[in-house]
Design a protein that fits this description.
The chain contains 13 helices and 38 strands. By secondary structure, it is an alpha+beta fold. Helix 3 packs parallel to helix 5 and helix 7 packs parallel to helix 8. The strands form seven sheets. Strands 6, 7, 8, 9, 11, 12, 14, 15, 19 and 20 form a ten-stranded antiparallel beta sheet that branches. An eight-stranded parallel barrel has the order 21-22-23-26-27-28-29-30, surrounded by four helices. Helices cover 19% and strands 31% of the residues. The protein is globular and about 85 Å long.
């Protein structure tokens, strides 16, 4: 059993293959957190301690016992109003302005299935158990159900919260977090993944100090600036040693992740919705659902923790046709021609792609309305047949006649002021009455908190997708939200949350209506790279920055929480359009093959030699794609601090392994680089398939492999090892 309840002691234990999560209903009917770590069967309530501490209040129910204080005890769902002055997971406001709440255990239920969340993405599983624990504030009539879904196979515990107003008066939810972890002691670092547009998910690791450390987003999307994935690692934890905990938020909007070391050296981690511009009214008998957090623990270091999340995404977050399929190699028209194209240009690109073995041509921005730049027509999803010189159906047929698939770009959440939609429905844009709106990229944001807008956009986009055989859609979002005001909302404090639900509603409808389409998420590249989007789109454009050197670092940071198959990665033109850097075609290919592979350049400008390289890369990727997409991934070094990047993917049987190395700098008389492979079978020998040279698996992992230093900038090396059959030896 994954979920076990010890009725005598009031202890709940959640077990995965390698971990245990434990909590207890105590004598005051509060739900206390006991343990999360390596798998064990012992009750851990002996770890609780009680002392009379000054200025730590005592609940009224504790009577004269001054040693009992929630200001010092570890809790599952700490709330404002119980005398706990640390960071809390839940704040509620009454109509009279009072913020106090006091939740006590009421009941629980164990179910033989993984819970789901209405209107929100959540991990799914054919075999799983759910624990539901109901907490109640009798005075307010508020019931909070804590949801725990145990995904045993990948050592992941999913958490969410359901809130029901069983009282007679409206209340306002001011803070709702989905998960809290309390640590009684320890020296931990917090790892976060910060960045900016075109340089997302840099790695930052800091000691957890006294006070609160917080990351999050108030931009309406999970953001380029901070990713909703956080790691707490013991101070000495490294890739292959030490304890670490990971938390991933399945949500694509505003979020907050906070860690605090308190006055008694205890550590609390809380992840959930951002409090900014959030004040959600809950009427009598209404319910609210918090987005899901996935938690995982590793006792064997960061690589194992990443593997837990990678397996969870592939098996329990991905859905649909492309869940386990290798995705087609694509060519996107954007950097080939930007807005300057017609139907003939797209067909010509398809002819060139077919000649090189590329399987999918994507027509990017500029095919609709009267859009020849980024100043107009968002919202007018009408095919510009005059520009294309044909209908979308005719263009799709012509592309398919070349032997390749056809895809398009859309940005359904946005509207241009110069558009028929805005002229007809200006009230459908988020903007504050009497205030000139903030523009970004000369576009406004449609009010997706308004169900009428979502219904309209479904009709418009689905109408386009029915006009021809569309095999792929890139869903983009190119600005942050501002001017948060919806004419359709009674209370503006619910708009940001309901906006994301509107996005999910449209995604659910479209992916259900068109199940054979490969959907790729995008928000100016990696501005909405989160597990919420991966529930609907099995890959996300990793960054608008296609520079291979920068991508080594971007994809390194991304890999901590997300598998390689999530990362849209393309070979682009040089000089690179974002950095001006010139990198050879081989290295650009090695880096792009680390993700969902494709190209972003003008194929007509390639030399014959470069075309031969592309043919070889496409053929190589087809051979390697199952290994890259489903193999176990290892970070072999840190490219943020070293002058090279190295990584490895190993198949489940440890019979094939792909080693990739990219030099990020070159110097005179440079020392030899030695790379230590990981994940091989020590008892096996492995052959370099290019040179035929055979190596001991034990030797490679113990002492490494020297990398030859060829002259020139940004050289790369890709070695495929195959286990030597015993009969060959």
């Amino acid at each position: 059993m994954a979920v076990i309840y010890d009725e005598k002691n009031g202890i709940f234990s959640l077990h995965t293959v390698n971990t245990t999560y434990q909590m207890k209903v105590d004598g005051q009917s509060y739900l206390l957190h006991l343990y999360y770590g390596q798998k064990l069967d012992a009750p851990m309530d002996y770890m609780l301690t009680y002392f009379d501490r000054g200025f730590s209040g005592n609940p009224y129910g504790a009577g004269l016992d001054r040693t009992y204080s929630l200001d010092a005890l570890p809790q599952e769902f700490p709330v404002l109003g119980t005398g706990d002055y640390r960071n809390v997971a839940f704040k509620i406001k009454e109509e009279n302005g009072c913020y106090e709440c006091d939740l006590h255990y009421k009941s629980h239920e164990i179910q033989d299935a993984k819970y789901s969340i209405p209107g929100l993405p959540s991990a799914h599983a054919k075999q799983a158990q759910t624990l539901r624990i109901v907490l109640q504030d009798e005075r307010l009539g508020i019931e909070v159900t804590l949801l725990y879904g145990v995904l045993e196979d990948c050592d992941v515990i999913a958490r969410s919260v359901q809130i029901r107003n069983a009282g007679g008066s409206r209340v306002y939810l001011e803070k709702v977090s989905s998960a809290c972890l309390d640590f009684l002691y320890g020296q931990y670092d917090v790892m976060t993944f910060y960045g900016r547009h075109a340089m997302e998910r840099n790695v930052q690791r800091n000691s957890v100090y006294h006070g609160r450390q917080c990351i999050g987003s108030t931009r309406g999307s999970s953001s380029h600036q901070y990713n909703p994935f956080v790691i707490l690692a013991q101070a000495d934890a490294a890739e292959n040693m030490g304890e670490c905990y990971g938390a991933a938020f399945l949500y694509s909007g505003n979020f907050s992740a906070e860690v605090e070391r308190d006055q008694y050296d205890q550590i609390r981690f809380v992840m959930g919705l951002s409090e900014d511009q959030f004040s959600y009214p809950l009427e009598a008998n209404e319910e609210f659902y918090a987005p899901e957090v996935l938690l995982s623990y590793s006792a064997q270091g960061l690589n194992r923790l990443s593997d837990n999340f990678h397996r969870c995404v592939r098996e329990h977050v991905y859905r649909g046709k492309y869940k386990n399929q290798v995705r087609p190699v694509l060519i996107n028209s954007w950097e080939a021609c930007y807005f300057d194209f017609d139907g003939d240009a797209i067909v010509e690109l398809a002819k060139q792609a077919a000649d090189l073995g590329i399987e999918l041509v994507v027509m990017d921005d500029g095919w609709f309305g009267h859009r020849d730049d980024d100043n107009s027509s968002l919202g007018d999803w009408t095919v510009n047949e005059e520009k294309l010189g044909c209908s979308l159906r005719e263009l799709s047929e012509r592309v398919h006649e070349q032997g390749v698939q056809f895809g398009i770009w859309i940005e359904p959440e946005m509207v241009s002021e110069d558009s028929d939609l805005y002229r007809q429905h200006p009230q459908w844009a988020l903007k504050i009455p009497g205030k000139a709106p903030i523009r970004a990229r000369n576009q406004l944001v449609l009010d997706f908190s308004n169900a009428e807008v979502v219904r309209y956009m479904f009709e418009e986009i689905s109408s386009v997708l029915k006009q021809g055989e569309i095999n792929y859609v890139k869903w983009d979002m190119n600005r942050s939200l501002s001017d948060i005001y919806s004419e359709a909302a009674i209370t503006q404090g619910k708009v940001m949350y309901d906006y994301v639900l509107g996005v999910y509603s449209l995604l659910e409808q479209l992916t259900s209506e068109f199940p054979d389409i490969l959907w790729e998420g995008c928000a100016g590249g990696g501005g909405r790279f989160d597990m919420g989007m991966l529930y609907y789109t099995p890959q996300i454009w990793c960054s608008d920055n296609t520079d291979a050197v920068d991508r080594v670092r971007i994809q390194y940071g991304t890999s901590y929480g997300y598998p390689l198959s999530t990362m849209g990665a393309h070979v682009s033109a040089v000089p690179n359009h974002q950095t001006g850097r010139i990198i050879n075609m081989d290295t650009r290919g090695v880096v792009a093959m680390t993700g969902a592979f494709g190209y972003e350049l003008d194929l007509g400008k390639l030399t014959d030699e470069e075309k031969d390289v592309v043919r070889e890369q496409v053929a190589r990727y087809h051979r390697l794609a199952p290994l890259i997409q489903n193999g176990k991934y290892y970070r072999l070094n840190n490219p943020f601090v070293e002058e090279y990047g190295a990584w490895m993917v190993v198949d489940e049987k440890k019979e094939k392994a792909l080693l990739s190395v990219v030099l990020l700098n070159i110097h005179g008389s440079m020392p030899v680089i030695y790379v230590k492979p990981e994940g091989l079978e020590a008892a096996k020998d492995y052959r370099d398939t290019a040179t035929g040279k055979v190596y001991s698996g034990a030797a490679l992992m113990a002492y490494g492999l020297p990398v030859s230093l060829a002259l020139g900038d940004y050289q790369s090396y890709q070695i495929l090892f195959e286990a030597v059959d015993e009969k060959e030896e």
